[in-house]
Amino acid sequence: MIEDKIRSLLDLMDKNNLAELEIEEEGFKLRLRKHEDGQLVRNFEQKAMPVQGGAPAAQPEDTGTYIPSPMVGTFYRTPNPESEPYVSPDDFVEPDTVIGIIEAMKVMNEIKAGKRGVIKKVLVESGSPVEYGQNLFQIEPS
Amino acid sequence: MPLNNILRPNQIKQKVNMFSKILVANRGEIAIRIIRACKRLNIATVAVYSDADEDCLHVRLADESICIGSAAPDKSYLNIPAIISAAEISDVDAIHPGYGFLAENAHFADVCRSCNISFIGPSAEAMELMGNKNEARKLAEKAGVPILPGSDHVTDAEDALKIAHSIGYPVILKPSMGGGGRGMRLVHNDVALANSVLASRAEAERSFGNGEFYIEKFVEKPRHVEVQLLGDEYGNVIHLGERDCTVQRRHQKLVEESPCPVIDDKLRSEICEAAIKIAKMAKYTNAGTVEFILDEDQKFYFIEMNTRIQVEHTVTEMVTNLDLIEEQIHLAAGEPLRYRQEDIVLDGVAIECRINAEDPANNFAPSPGKVELVYFPVARGIRIDSHLYSGYKIPPYYDSLIAKLIVRGDDRTSAISLMREALDQFVIDGVKTNISFYHNLFANVKFVNGRYNTNFIEDII
Prior knowledge:
The complex is a heterodimer.
Chain A: H1 2-15, E1 20-25, E2 28-33, H2 45-48, E3 65-68, E4 73-76, E5 92-93, E6 98-104, E7 107-112, E8 117-122, E9 128-130, E10 135-141
Chain B: E1 21-24, H1 28-40, E2 44-50, H2 57-61, E3 64-69, H3 80-89, E4 94-96, H4 106-114, E5 118-119, H5 124-131, H6 133-142, E6 150-153, H7 157-167, E7 171-175, E8 185-187, H8 190-208, E9 213-217, E10 223-231, E11 237-244, E12 248-249, E13 252-253, E14 255-258, H9 265-281, E15 286-294, E16 300-306, H10 313-320, H11 324-332, E17 349-356, E18 358-359, E19 365-366, E20 369-370, E21 373-375, E22 382-386, E23 393-394, E24 401-409, H12 412-425, E25 427-429, H13 435-443, H14 445-449, H15 456-460
Parallel strand pairs in B: 1-2, 1-4, 2-3, 4-5
Antiparallel strand pairs in B: 6-9, 7-8, 7-9, 10-11, 10-15, 12-13, 14-17, 15-16, 17-24, 18-19, 20-23, 21-25, 22-24
């Protein structure tokens, strides 16, 4: 995985007291540069360079359907700590089905599915922060 | 040079705790500006962004970033619950609102406070007081600062007529809750007044949620002079000199410079002292700017106060060699002012141009789109605050400011010369910009002479 590679490169830099490291392999180029105060500036080139064949695995092509978060806050799968989750994998949902709660500024907002289908995967753990547009569930539309 | 050992320890009433993480409730160049100041202070940063701003540079430069809503400002950058929610989940100590958006929203400042998050700016009370332009005028009068002949808020057309006659035409109708030069109406006679009263009230109601307006004498050939202030929580206020923002188009500032080229040290001192008097009377803290009008007889009058950091704070930074955003952060953390008035020295001349993605040939219509190539001019004395990069797609939902070009010279002539050089070498391909407009402006003899007023642009276009 690319993250592991970058982490080991960062270790390499630290151990050898390097300020800058550039590495190029087939279809992939990476430059890491340290600022004087030791902070790393993320290099935009990483995003611009296409990752091809032999290189660390690219993201699998995304053809799934998802239920995205309509707001930013903390996501809960259950109405309260003792209850069962609103929905779980293999549950059928309608657009109006409540699939979770997002807490923002002490207000608990019920989140509706907005789609019809069967829940395939839960993508966010209960109690985790979520941002606007972040996928909460993968759903098989019907 | 910081001299806070001047204050005796018992003057500092509370334990000062510098923030460890700040959320930047803005976008684009000012968000980057704030992030930069935080990095210098070793404070972690959180950027918020709308889904239209995924590729905006401030998102990449912050330590953390949170998408808070869809493109429309009211769903994202003006969305208080979303911003506070983002602040909570990222566990920040403070929020910097930048300028525009929620920067002068007293309710937002209040909400921050009740959520135990520091708001980097003045108190909600000071914002509310000075945010009502009419109340601000009354306060200035109480402080003994000259204000333009004018009225309290106008009740009806008959009232307006009486006021206009006592002041003398021309007069200007101004919404009390207005700002940014919007919603003002110039009136030359009784007939126009009758129509304008109704229109003004309706427009103010629509734009600012409050139909209240007042009347002021209109100065025919004014210059716009504003004073930068910093205030701490211990009652101390200092000024950082003045800026001249006379070159405007439809009340939008186009060029800002410091110092003002047409006032002497005595008048400068009077204007700056007047600004401090007003700020102290308003119990103002953090950064703020007091605006004045200078008439042809070099008489100055208080107009309004901007209770935020401004776009053109950069100009003051170039001549004082200070970092105003850093100072804002120190002040918000409860520190006393780090400078006495005598420590503030203005050196040289700084000028700023606001580079906008707009088409001067098409009435300055906004020109969003993909910036194919950007090249920033570089030389000693040139500073650029911008979120541009080659390949960046300027979204259509927000204001058209894409870069601030600031120069500093030892005098106004060399500053103007440097600005012309910088404009010449500034490359922005792919969208229309107002750079060509600035080329013409800086070659214009009247501008170079420094003798002009706020009608200057309309006169030369």
